[in-house]
Amino acid sequence: MFDLRELRRARSVAEAVQLLADHPEARLIAGGTDVLVKLRHFDGQFRHLVDIHNLPEIKFARLEGDRLMVGAGLTFAETIDSPLVKEYIPVLGEACATVAGPQIRNMGTVGGNIANGAVSADTAAPMLVLEPELLVSGPEGRRHLSIHGFHTGPGQVALKRGEVLFGFSFDLKKLAGLGACYYKYAMRSAMDIATIGCAAGVKMEGGVIKEARLALTVAAPTPIRCPGAEAAALGRPLNDETMKNILAALEGDIKPRTSWRATREFRVRIIKALAERMMRAAAERAAGRVQP
Amino acid sequence: MTMVDLKLHVNGKDVETAADPRESLLEVLRGRLGLMGVKEGCGVGECGACNVLVDGLPVDSCLTLAVWADGKCVRTIEGEARPGGELSPTQRAYVEAGAVQCGFCTPGLVMTTSAFLERNQHRLNEITREEIKRAHAGHLCRCTGYEMIVEAVEQALGREVKGAGECRPAPSLAEKHLTNERR
Fold first, then answer.
1. Among candidates A235, A198, A202, A200, which has minimal Cα distance to A218?
2. Do A16 and A159 fall into the same domain?
3. Is B26 on the interface with A (CB under 8 A)?
């Protein structure tokens, strides 16, 4: 039996916000694959829960004009299977496919993966590349947050107490022509946490890089974008010399640490290897994409 | 915590039971419904021993609150054999491939295999070894070294695959109870 004191079911996002306001000690539970593990280990912070598991209101993927809206309640498996995700933001589905194993992917949610602030979250790097607006509902109404700066520290995010992350809004106009990919480096090919995760997004024009987005997980205290490396790529052809400059600049973007999973030095090597591979793979994908 | 009534559709039968909202689906299946084929291994979603199918999808029942299964169709190893005791194609394949040693991981694995075969029924000829491994990656087996398990799945691919029992939702009761609970 889990060490729970209260479990309050919310039948809508509005009710979840209300329940969180009425019970400030309560936290959200969605897929449960993180929260229930914490409860199993008697983590006292999660004894009071507001339950949004399988809430239909936040299980959506739909087009609204030039935007693709993705519900925070979609499981990893549902995200992988979503035709709209496959068509417009395939990198997100590819990243979801690297999470844990099948059973966890049938329960854990994309929203939870971002909202729990994990430094190793597999969807964090592609999200940083795809730059969705985060749809948040709270006691003062709804607001949109940028994915940039959303992760504020290990396990920390910019959500205020009582706020619910209920979805992501992707600007498809800005994503047109962007080739993107993700690679998770871990000790095992399943049921493991990333030693380093790397996503890249590239737009090419006339043989040069028109836009570069490079994101990493476990390379700093939060998932990060790499502005130095991106600047070194801009306006250049993607050749060996440019790559050398990108990787040199990348050193200034990252702050990996030594943990039992890997040493700092090892992480730096993996980061550089992945950054190069992902930039090249993203550029290839961009070349294969038809400009609208 | 106040008990809640659950209506489940377990292995083809409607089942009503009272449960504590703090209980996992694993605890309700074993402790209240007596389905001892569901095993508890790690208790934190790493080993897959507790895997059951909820509305056809493999989930770790140790990381599923029992109330979440209210109104759902749950399949465990007990529902795998056909009425009369005839083994399912998956079970036969596991036996014939020698994919069982101590057997603790087997119920969870068999359920994953059955779900995998049902989901891919339209393309059984295209399934690769790599796909089989990926689909079963959420299970630990400390005896077999996995080779015989993959072989069992390959053997089962050659057989007709059918879901055990009909799956239909049961009306939900717990929803109401949980929402009204204010203590």
1. A198
2. yes
3. no
What do you get for the CA distance between the two ends of chain A, in Å?
Answer: 54
What confidence category does residue B160 fall into, taking pLDDT thresholds of 50, 70 and 90?
low
Please check whether residues A5 and A130 belong to one and the same domain.
yes
Interface membership of A7 toward B (CB under 8 Å): yes
Shortest CA gap B65–chain A (Å):
8
Nearest to A37 among B1, B22, B44 (CB): B44
pLDDT tens digit sequence for A117-165: 999 999 999 999 999 999 999 999 999 999 999 999 999 999 999 999 9
* Nearest beta carbon to residue B138 from set A36, A40, A102: A102
Q: How many CA atoms lie within 13 A of A162 on its CB side?
A: 14
Note whether A100 contacts B112, CB cutoff 8 Å: no
Residue B131 confidence (pLDDT): 95
A53 touches chain B (CB under 8 A): yes
The pair of structure tokens assigned to A54 is 């399988």
End-of-domain residue from the set A142, A157, A175: A175
Q: What type of residue is A111?
A: G
Whether the predicted model's global pTM rises above the 0.90 cut = yes
Measured between alpha carbons, how far is A120 from A118 in angstroms, rounded to an integer? 5
Residue with tokens 């059918």: B162
Q: Cβ contact (<8 Å) for B65 and A36?
A: yes
Least Cα separation, residue A35 to chain B (angstroms)? 9
**For residue range B93-146, what is the model confidence (pLDDT) as tens digits?**
999 999 999 999 999 999 999 999 999 999 998 999 999 999 999 999 999 999
Number of domains comprising chain A = 2
Q: What is the ipTM of this complex?
A: 0.95
Q: Give the domains, in start order, of chain B with CATH numbers.
A: 4-78+165-180 (3.10.20.30), 89-157 (1.10.150.120)
Q: Are residues A95 and A194 in the same domain?
A: no
Domain with A9, as residue range(s), is 1-175
